Amino acid sequence: MHTEVYPAQHREIVATLLSGKFIVEKSPLFAIVDRHRNFYIAFFKQSYDYELDTTNNYFFLTSKHTDEKGSRDFILFLALLAYEFHNERRDFIKELKENVFSVAEIESLIKNATKYEDLLKGTSVEEFNTFIKKWENRGVLSFVNEKRKKFRFNDPIDTFLQVADQLCDKHLKEENNVLVAEEIED
Length: 186
Description:
By secondary structure, this protein is mainly alpha-helical. The protein has helices spanning 10-18, 28-35, 37-48, 70-87, 92-98, 103-111, 116-119, 128-137, 157-185; strands spanning 23-24, 51-54, 58-62, 101-102, 141-143, 150-153. The chain contains nine helices and six strands; from the N terminus they run H-E-H-H-E-E-H-H-E-H-H-H-E-E-H.
C-alpha cells in the first residue's frame, strides 16, 4: 500500500486556502507552506487547477474559473474609499498601511458617499458589519480591540491594490485607444 506523506497540518492548510482565506506571515501555517512552497504550488494546480500565489508575507489561491463576487465587491469598496479619501485630501495608501479605522466611521463615509449608489448599492458592502467580518475572516483586515469597533488592514491588502492598479491601467489604455482612434478618424 502506497501512502503519501503530506506536510504537517496539510488538511488545515488546504481547508484554509480553499475557503478563500489568506495565510499570513504571523500564522503558524505560513512557515509550513513556505517550506513546502513547490509542493503546494503543484498540489493546488494538479488537484484544483488553482494557482497558489505567493508573496513574502502571505499565500492565497486564485483561479481563472470563478465568478466569486466578494473580491469584486471588496475592490469596489476600496475604490470608493480611495475616492472619498482623495476628496478629503488624505493619502489613501499611507492611510491603509498605517492607520486604525473605526467601523462606524468608515461605514458612514462609504454609505454617505456621492458615488455609493453607483458603485456599491446591491453589493455585499450594504451589510457593512457582515462585509467587514468576512474580510477579517479571510485575513485581509483585523480587529484591534475586543469590541470589534476598530480595524486595520493587513498585508494581503496589497493584492487588491495591485488588481485595482491593473484595472486602472487597463481602463486608461482603453480610453487612450478610443482617443487615438477618434484622432485617426478626424
